[in-house]
Amino acid sequence: MKKNTARNSEQKFAYYMDLLSHDVLNNNQAVLGYLELILAAGGVDKTTRKYAQKAVSHIRTSTILVDNVKRLMVTREMDSSELKPTNLIVALNSAEREVVRMFPDRKVVVKIPSKISEMLVVGDGAASDLVLNLLVSMVRLDPSEAITLEFKLSEVSVRGKDWLQLTLEDPTAHMPKMAKDMPIEDAYQEDSSIAVKMVGILYCKMMAGLLGGGFEVRELNNKAEPKGAVFVTTLLKAGEP
Amino acid sequence: MTSVLIVDDELFIVELYRDILQLRGYKIVGTAFDGEEAVRKYGANSEKPDVIIMDHRMPVMNGVQATREIIKMNPKQKVIFVSADVMVEKEAREAGAIDFLPKPFRMDDLIEKMQKVSAR
After folding, report:
1. Where are the domains of chain A?
2. Which of A73-77, A217-221, B58-62 has the lowest mean pLDDT?
3. B71: pLDDT confidence band, cut at 50, 70 and 90?
4. CATH number at residue B56
5. Which of A89, A200, B67, B108 lies at 20 to 30 Å from B19 by C-alpha?
6. How many angstroms away from the CA of B80 is the closest CA of chain A?
7. How many domains does chain B have?
8. Residue B113 clears pLDDT 90, i.e. is over it
9. Are B107 and A40 an interchain contact pair (Cβ–Cβ within 8 Å)?
10. Closest chain B residue to A102 measured between Cα atoms?
11. In chain B, what residues touch A62 (CB-CB under 8 Å)?
């Protein structure tokens, strides 16, 4: 009986979360739409255009954050065996287009392995969201006007299973100090005012874990400053037991 | 000029679509604030819109049900489903929607879909 009550309460909570998220997305739509109408109107001066473009970028970020909340709510209820395979290459290309549009005031270049057309991993839509979050989190660590990010793919076999290792490198990113000082998972124990500085990284770590994989952050070890950053995400290849 | 029926329960969203589409030269022939109103208006008007923009989560009748009813009346009707509920895409397409756009979308994405769908 107690278990049922807990489940009902959780369902009610998920229901309200869903309603609120839906409302936020509708409002984001209105703000985004009117900003684009302002940008499309004639006679907009350079400074106003720059501010409006920055606002567009933040609306997209806000939407990704809402999607992340929704995705966490759905994925935490699922077993990784329930997740459908998704083509990681399609997800990489789609995320590349999205991140370039999200930062119109910066020159973002994303290099993707061009020789592979299909690489199936476990994760359904959550894997696509994860890839976009990797890119956005990395761009947020890099203050440069021009940013070049590079994805690398490799296959690894651990404990009798085949995994896909997705590495994202940015030689001009600045690693958050706390990510250098402690294992990422310890950030959960920290004051949230510290953890919030690396919420994107924490999300990637949590989502990769929910998908049955893993996530690590390290410095790229450039000789000069900044040292750059590397995200290493491990995802289970589809078809693995 | 391509004619459009806008269906969404949020007035501010209907107004936004109208502003965007009119700016890009589309003719708004009607609006509806729930699925039932959309079906009723669609059935009552002899001149059908070229495209319907359909939301999903609406009172009285949702977008999937409304799309199903409209497609029953006219299997050739073009419906673009626009919703924040990305999980509903498969159901919307099965009901007869010709395309799906997740909210929030960029203005150019909507216009691109409108052009693609109108040209079919």
Report:
1. 2-76, 81-236
2. A73-77
3. very high
4. 3.40.50.2300
5. B67
6. 16
7. 1
8. yes
9. yes
10. B106
11. none
B85 contacts in A (CB within 8 Å)? 22
Q: Which of B85, B104, B107 lies at the smallest CB-CB distance from A28? A: B104
CATH classification code of A81-236:
3.30.565.10
Range of the domain at B18: 3-118
The pLDDT assigned to A3 comes to: 58
ipTM of the complex: 0.86
Residue A132: which of A18, A233, A240, A19 has the closest Cα? Answer: A233
DSSP string, A71-122: HHHHHTTS-GGGSPEEEHHHHHHHHHHHHHHH-TTSEEEEE--SS----EEE
Which residues in chain B are contacts of A101 at CB distance < 8 A?
A: 106
* Angstroms from A32 CA to nearest CA on chain B: 7
pLDDT in tens, B98-108: 999 999 999 99
- pTM surpassing 0.95? no
HEC string for A176-210 = CHHHHHCCHHHHHHCCHHHHHHHHHHHHHHHHHHH
